[in-house]
Amino acid sequence: MKKLLRGFVLMSAMFCGVNTAVAGSLGDPEMVRPVPRPDFHASQSNFAGFYAGALAAQGTATTEVESQYYRYGPIARPAGTAYYRYPAPARNFMLPMEADGWQGGVFVGYNWDVGQPQGWVVGVEADYMAGSLSYSNAGTSKYIADIGQREFSVSDQATLRGRVGYDLGNVMPYVALGASCAHIETHNVQWMVQPHHSSGTQCGPSGAIGADVALGNNMLLGVEYRMTHYGDTDVEQGLLRVGWRF
């Protein structure tokens, strides 16, 4: 009987020890502090992402029109005859014309930041400019108006291009290269000159340098100098741009 009682006491002690160990392991767990998630937006460039805005442009366009001048020889008066002119060979020449003016338009694009928070930024952009750069000699002189009419205009410019810039914080200088298309018209009707009429859409390469400035987290202000070559027509413009980053 004593042996049985002793065994029961020993088993009870062992059972209490096991319960104490289990209870200790199942107690309140140690508090684990969560690892903070990185704020990717905070490290993002001020110029990355989707953006759109409006622009104003002022500049000039130059072209040359091939013409042929039908000329006559000097006045001659043989003895006993009336004055008359005798024909002379025609002469080909290039007629230069220069147009200027203002244009307004809109632009939209997307930038990717290669380095964070500062570094290279690459993007793609499209813009459209309404209005025209134009030239006309109408009304400048009654003598010119009597002789003929010259007109030249470049309108409805649309450009698709890529941009590469460097984020300096709140300023991003950039270069851009792409292609532009525009509606170009030239007319030259003068006395003793072969008439010339041309109207249609022409396309060509376009390059630019500029800089964007971040005003706050979303607003962008930019300036740009752009050159575009449409075959026989060259366009140079200065642009002022105001945009919003979304």
Question: Quick gist of this model?
Answer:
The protein is 14% helix and 59% strand.
Low-confidence stretches: 20-26, 38-43, 82-86
Describe the largest sheet. 8 strands, antiparallel, barrel
Number of strand segments: 8
Order of helices and strands: HHEEEHEEEEE
Biggest sheet strand order reads 1-2-3-4-5-6-7-8
Inertia-based shape:
elongated
Mean pLDDT: 79
For the record, the count of structural domains works out to 1
Estimated helix fraction: 10-25%
CATH architecture label name: Beta Barrel
Rg over alpha carbons:
39 Å
Overall description:
With 246 residues, the chain is mainly beta. The protein has a single domain (47-245), classed as Porin, CATH 2.40.160. 14% of the residues lie in helices and 59% in strands. The protein contains three helices and eight strands; from the N terminus they run ααβββαβββββ. The chain has helices at residues 2-25, 40-43, 142-147; strands spanning 49-69, 91-113, 120-136, 148-166, 171-190, 196-215, 219-230, 233-245. Strand 6 (196-215) and strand 7 (219-230) form a beta hairpin. It is elongated and about 90 Å long. 22% of the residues are buried.
Strands, helices and their partners?
Elements: H1 2-25, H2 40-43, E1 49-69, E2 91-113, E3 120-136, H3 142-147, E4 148-166, E5 171-190, E6 196-215, E7 219-230, E8 233-245
Antiparallel strand pairs: 1-2, 1-8, 2-3, 3-4, 4-5, 5-6, 6-7, 7-8
